[in-house]
Write a structure and sequence with these properties.
With 311 residues, the chain is mainly β. The chain has helices spanning 2-16, 23-42, and strands at residues 48-49, 57-58, 72-73, 83-88, 97-104, 124-130, 136-139, 149-154, 159-167, 175-183, 202-203, 208-212, 222-230, 235-236, 244-249, 255-258, 262-266, 271-279, 284-294, 297-307.
């Protein structure tokens, strides 16, 4: 019975996520493709670019002011590296240990990829988010030499979970690949999260976080988000940068991993301001998680940000 329920759930998920094309979304996709093509055209021999942040380019060697990565010379290769993603057991259960395996393969011939660049102190980053947005995990799979990456997770309850892989294959470009895990059981539902705008201040593990954002945020426009962390003492780099941010649409179709463009001390060190520049691809409510480290303790805060359609 559990297997049949899972098959039906997957079929329903496919149906629910195959709506008729929205002309506004189609236009946005076409614009994004055109912009992407222009960006690729801008990468020429003798120029340097950041493999992590597409908007950072230079005529000289150096490091990215945004993420700290070394600038790379040459033409950017935007090929996507697929993942052979497996789940064991094949029908996982809530609260039981589930092993996720990530087998990265080369585009074209599908051969296993074993060489990766270290990005923010790790070879492979993974974000796991539940369908109702209540479960958030930022962690790092492990592997033995010559093997695929693996990660053991206990999914807290039935539902759909999105798994975002962030890695940088040697000779390629940084990748953001999303997979889906279905956990069957009582209460399983494929309804998107019902969240409302909430930008109120948050108390985290050992800090206080306030979000400063424009009164109106438009889809497909770059926007500045500032997170003010109090007190401004003991805040230190976390995984190579001052903060990490994950933004996810309420339906978990869009997921973005980003890092601050600036980290500033404000008001005679009254608070630390972590500034991000974000482009939300569609209108809707986005949950945004920010993670930073203070006095050796990782802090996580989330905000629900409304994004309007750009008319």
């Amino acid at each position: 019975m559990g297997r049949i329920s899972l098959i039906l759930a997957v079929a329903l998920y496919c149906v629910l996520n195959a709506p008729a094309p929205d002309t506004r979304i189609v236009a946005a996709i076409n614009a994004a493709v055109a912009d992407s093509n222009q960006q690729v055209d801008d990468y020429t021999e003798g120029k340097y670019y950041c493999p992590m942040d597409a908007d950072v380019r230079s005529s000289e060697e150096g490091f990215c002011p945004k993420c700290g990565m070394k600038l790379v010379a040459g033409v950017k290769d935007t090929s996507e590296y697929p993942i052979n993603f497996t789940v064991a057991p094949s029908i996982p259960r809530a609260a039981d240990l589930t092993r996720l395996t990530f087998g990265v393969v080369a585009p074209g011939d599908g051969s296993p990829v074993r060489n990766f660049e270290i990005v923010h102190e790790k070879l492979y980053h993974v974000f796991v988010v539940s369908q109702d947005l209540s479960f958030f995990l930022h962690t790092h799979p492990e592997r033995n030499e010559g093997e695929d990456f693996h990660l053991d997770v206990r999914f807290p309850k039935p539902g759909m979970y999105r798994v975002l892989s962030d890695f940088y294959p040697s000779g390629g470009t940084p990748q953001l690949i999303t997979n889906t895990v279905m956990i069957p059981g009582d209460g399983f539902s494929l309804q998107p999260a019902q969240i409302h705008a909430d930008l109120s201040a948050r108390q985290t593990e050992n800090s206080h976080v306030e979000l400063v954002a424009p009164q109106r945020i438009l889809a497909r426009d770059k926007v500045s988000l500032s997170f003010r962390v109090t007190p401004d003492d003991g805040i230190e780099p976390y995984l190579g940068v001052m903060a990490h941010m994950l933004a996810a649409s309420s339906d978990l179709i869009d997921m973005m991993h980003d890092h601050p463009t600036q980290s500033l001390d404000k008001g005679s060190h009254a608070f630390k301001e972590l500034q991000f520049v974000v482009l939300f691809p569609r209108p809707g409510i986005y949950r945004v998680w920010i993670q930073f480290q203070r006095k050796g303790l990782v802090n996580t805060a989330s905000f629900d940000i409304p994004v309007d359609d750009s008319e």
